[in-house]
Structures are given as C-alpha cells and as structure tokens.
Amino acid sequence: MTKIIVVGGGAGGLELATKLGRTLGRKRRAEITLVDKNSSHLWKPLLHEVATGSMDEGVDALSYRAHAKNHGFDFQMGTLWDIDRDQKVITLAPMYDENNELLMPERELEYDILVMAIGSTSNDFNTPGVRDNCIFLDNPKQAHRFRREMNNEFMRLHAKHGQGSVDIAIVGAGATGVELSAELHNAIKELRNYGFRDLDNSKLNVTLVEAGERILPALPPRISSAAHQELLKLGVKVKTNTFVTKADEEGLETKEGERIHADIMVWAAGIKAPDFLKDIAGLETNRINQLEVENTLQTTRDENIFVIGDCAACTQEDGSKVPPRAQSAHQMASRCFSNIVAKLNGRELKPYVFKDHGSLVSLSRFSTVGSLMGNLTKGSMMIEGRIARMVYISLYRMHQIALHGYVKTGLMMLVGRINRVLRPSLKLH
C-alpha cells in the first residue's frame, strides 16, 4: 500500500491530510500519516485573538488524534529531524517531557510520497536582543506567553489604581501586527466590564513600528491608508520608516537613535521557513529556508516530495512568488491533493496557479478593511465595515468546512453563538 506522509498540521497540511484520508485512507488505497510537533491545531491567523484572550483556544483548538480517527488517517506526534531520500525514510526527534524525561524515542517512518507543510516562523533578521526580549506570535505557546504577560501588566496597573500605563511595542505592520494592535484596545475595553474600572484606552500605549513607508505593505495603498486611520482613531501610535536596530529589557532602539519604551515587545516583522530546512536532504532552498518547488508543487530535486504553504518557494509564470497567506496554503492543499491522486493513477500533474481573492484585515470589533479581487469586479473592490467583517469570518468558516464538512461546521457555528451567551467575552484565566 502506498505510504503518504504529511509533515505539518497547519492550515494546508491538515486540510490535505483530511482530503487524502477521506478519499484514499478510508478506501485502503493508501496509508496516510500526519506528523506534527503539537497535539492540536489552531488556525494561525487567529493567534492574535488567542494572545489577547478574545478567543479561547481550549474551545476552538482541534485534536489531531481525534480528527485523524474520524477522517481515515494516522497521526504521529513528533518533530522532523532528518529525511533520507534514498531510503525514503523520515526521522522524528526523540520527545521529552518538562522534566527532561524521555517520552518517545527517535522514530523512523517510511514514505512513498512526502509532503512538507511545516509553515513558517518569525524572521528576526539577526537583530541584536530580539530573540531574548521579544515575543513571536508563531504558535499557541507564544500566544499564551503574551496573554500571561499582558494580564500581569494590567494587574500591576490595577493594583496602583490605574496610576501609570502599559506600554506595548509591536514591530512589523503586516496583518499580524495591525490586527494585534486593534485587538489590544478591544481587550482593555472588555476588562473594564470585569472589574477593572480604572483601566481605559488612555492607560494603554500601543506603538506599531514599520520599517517601510506604510503599514500593510502587501496590500493596496487605499486599504493601508484606511487601516492606518482606524488605528489612529483607536489611539495606536503608528511609526513608519522606522528601522529597529536593537531590543533590550527596556524597549527598542531605532536606526535614528530613538528609544521606544515597552513593557512587552512583539516581533512580527517578517517570516522565514524553519532553520533546519536549510539544505535538508540536499533539497534546494532559498535565502529564507523555503524549499524550491516546480509549478506542480514537487521539489526541484525530488519528484516524490511535495511542498505546500509558507515553507514553499513557488514562482508563478509572471516571476512573482506566491505570498505566504492562508488562502495560498488552502489552494496549494487542493492542487497538491489532485496531483498526488494523479501521480498514483499515472496521470499528468497540473501546475498550481495562485488566485488572489483579496485580503482582509480585522481591526477587532471596531472595523474590518480589505479588498476582494476578481470576484464581483474585474479588478479589485475595497470593502470595509460589517460586510468586510462577514467576509473575514467566512475565510475561517471555509477552513472549517474543508476539515469538518458543512453539517458539523454549521453545528460549530451554533455552539459558538451559544457560548457567546454562556461564556465571558474575554478569556480571564
């Protein structure tokens, strides 16, 4: 039986493993295995909501093991260590508990087809002090750390009867930085409803730092400008054309010598594929460790290894790179699935073509701005407000539908409505 291994249970990897399990695994046409270092899945674009407590990951996280059982594939918890392309074997690193006691020894898994869907991590560009003093919102663990430190700062301020302020600096004004900036102001607004009467927006100083000329540089200027104005209305200090050269315990230092004081610092200034991917198994990589792929999503040096998501360096016909977005991973998962099935059946593989359906940025409950491209108009259409918020939420619903189907997703939406009544609007523990 053909053995297919998907490494990485992010948006693309989990959707792919689910499709393969339903189509091939249940029919015993292939043995599907998903590998991930975590035990549960959370849609990465929602991490800023987990960080501020707007989302309870205990409710929304998905168990890999339970999902695998229900969708015809196997799950192996572990971290990829090495790939032996000659023997078609991957090695998983040994696992240890918090007391450094061995939980699982080193393991080897055989494959006929391997899919790399490991995603990305924050790129600190080797800026001094960043790794030791800044938080990276790459995973739920980092989001938990941020929420813990944020709550501690608010508690200290509350103990001083609101005398002083909480200073938070966010480096990088992409979607993560912008959405987190807005979500923080929503968090302090909600905290007032739960006994922190001496807290308000004047006690929260959020500074958003961007090296480029404008925030949201990957989006059209008119959307960037609209988001900028919304952030200013909330009280966020936006600093563009500001290059951070150093971070320490007290804050950030810029190229111009300016000091930006911060109690908490978040680095969201760029992404790269994990460092261990650099030249792994002799595969071709680029300067940010992404694996170079053909237009069929197969690696340039091994047709039995596919790559999807943020760790794939995929060049389109016009020479542009596929952007590292959730919609890219979703589309890649669909094309990779059809190409794997075609490969098993001896048919020709088709090229992956990225279709940009637009981008949306949520400014918490205050606003949503973005563009829809190629859907209702021949070019792009800017949308904002309630309609944009509905479209933004629908992106997550599409991900849920890919994993659970329409019926279960509908039931989950119903439970979500009920939880709005039963649970606090902000996670307080």
From TrEMBL:
One of its GO terms (biological process) is aerobic electron transport chain. InterPro entries: FAD/NAD-bd_sf, FAD/NAD-binding_dom, NADH-Q_oxidoreductase. Gene3D superfamilies: 3.50.50.100. Keywords: FAD, Flavoprotein, Oxidoreductase. The keyword Coiled coil does not apply. One of its GO terms (molecular function) is NAD(P)H dehydrogenase (quinone) activity. PANTHER family: 64 KDA MITOCHONDRIAL NADH DEHYDROGENASE (EUROFUNG), APOPTOSIS-INDUCING FACTOR 1. This is NAD(P)/FAD-dependent oxidoreductase.
